[in-house]
Amino acid sequence: MFATTPKFIQALFPSLVWRKETLNKEIWLTFDDGPEPEVTPWILSVLKKENITATFFLVGEQIEEFPELVGAIIKEGHTIANHSYSHKNGWLCTKEKYIADIEKCQELMPNNKLYRPPYGKITKAQITLLKEKYKIILWDVLSWDFQQNTSPERVQGNILKNTKEGSIIVLHNNQKSHKNFFPILEDTIQKLKEKGFSFSATW
Ligand SMILES: [Zn+2]
Description:
Elements: H1 7-12, E1 26-34, H2 39-49, E2 55-58, H3 60-65, H4 67-75, E3 79-82, H5 95-106, E4 114-115, H6 124-130, E5 135-136, E6 141-142, H7 152-162, E7 168-172, H8 175-181, H9 185-194, E8 198-199
Parallel strand pairs: 1-2, 1-7, 1-8, 2-3, 4-5, 6-7
């Protein structure tokens, strides 16, 4: 399994954003699937302590359930973005249903321009319909925090080994991933800073 997205896959989907062009040593830390009442406040406290900003790809159903958490994310200066309304797998639904689900989430964040497909699964037809309105953001560094037989050390290793300038790193704002990164998130951020990286939430 790949902790970085292979070049040949990136080349098949050139209209997707896998990694950012940057002349500086900037990186983009992203959290998928929130907001969530236990994990989101914890992530926010770590980011605040480290004085960095990140991007939260939020699920519409969760936004409706926990709107105050969205307010907290925005208030701390982070970026919020669209991760669909009900976390649909693009490979398993019609393009009409898929787009409608994204638009339903978008109504909750009308100024947003970013979309990340759940599971990274999206078809060429869906991309064609979305790419005028959204920047479709994937990642080049997958931490594998969602994998149940991984460990915090391996999650940290995946991030530290593979991050380079312009990298987009993905972690998950949910309970089952949290146990794999809560012991190492702060230390990982500090180690990335020691390597000279700075964190951006501007796209
Ligand atoms: Zn997701």
